[in-house]
Amino acid sequence: MAAAYRGRFAPSPTGPLHAGSLVAALASWLDARAHGGQWLVRIEDVDTPRCVPGADQVILSQLATCGLVPDEPPVWQSTRGALYQQALDRLVAAGQAYPCACSRKDIEEALRAAGRPRTRHGELVYPGTCRHGTGGRPARAWRLHTEGTPPVHWNDRRLGPQQQDVATEVGDFVLRRADGLWAYQLAVVVDDAHQAITHVVRGEDLADNTPRQILLQRALGLPTPVYLHTPLVLGADGEKLSKQNGAAPLDLSDPAQALQDAAKVLGIRLEATQPGWLPGAVSAFERFLDDASGPA
């Protein structure tokens, strides 16, 4: 028997929700309701330097104003460090994670010396310098050993078949940062498993993270959720709306209008008002799923 559907919305409290955030929140809520499942909220606050005090409560209030209320109390990643440490310890014991002494400058110099240009949107592909030891240098971070892993293939319910060779396109990626903070990839994988998440619905900009997370799930013996990456809301400059590029906080003076605007990005157009709008949107979202690339 298939596991009961459990989905989640996992915002970072770096500021209030904006229009793009609401699209992801609404899509994950609708998908859970379309499957008769549960919808959770997780505050992803492990990157503490970027978190804004009080933003978590603002986000929860914004969601409630839109009628998007989680089925269980929200959880905060900042309270779950022991779980992340247990996962890292397992990877280290299995020889799948190792300490790294490299600074960003070290990585850039190693790649330049090897004649390997920076690719993948300018991200540094780690060359494996510390894979077999730090040479006596103090460790700065911990990385997952990806050498020899085959390309990761997965099917996105909207984008269709996807693949990435993490070993060559990303390299051994960070699990715990040089500043001691937990990396997003490890935290999200541990949390999804711990909360028994079966389906992940999030913005298309996060699709590139999926193969790394699948590798981690396999390394830790954890189940892989079903993924669906939603369309992005773009600004006037064609770039994705984000808090980093100054996206305006969500205007909730008319919650029904905000929801309808978010739904239009998902191809849902309903002339109704809250609260009766949401049940109708569930049926419309099921049609959105039928039009998606992969099976629902």
UniProtKB/TrEMBL annotation:
One of its GO terms (cellular component) is cytosol. Zn(2+) binds at residues 100, 102, 126, 130. Keywords: Aminoacyl-tRNA synthetase, ATP-binding, Ligase, Metal-binding, Nucleotide-binding, Protein biosynthesis, Zinc. A motif ('HIGH' region) lies at residues 11-21. One of its GO terms (biological process) is tRNA modification. ATP binds at residue 243. Residues 6-247 form the Glutamyl/glutaminyl-tRNA synthetase class Ib catalytic domain. Binds 1 zinc ion per subunit. Pfam families: tRNA-synt_1c. Belongs to the class-I aminoacyl-tRNA synthetase family. GluQ subfamily. Catalyzes the tRNA-independent activation of glutamate in presence of ATP and the subsequent transfer of glutamate onto a tRNA(Asp). Glutamate is transferred on the 2-amino-5-(4,5-dihydroxy-2-cyclopenten-1-yl) moiety of the queuosine in the wobble position of the QUC anticodon. This is Glutamyl-Q tRNA(Asp) synthetase. It comes from Ramlibacter aurantiacus.
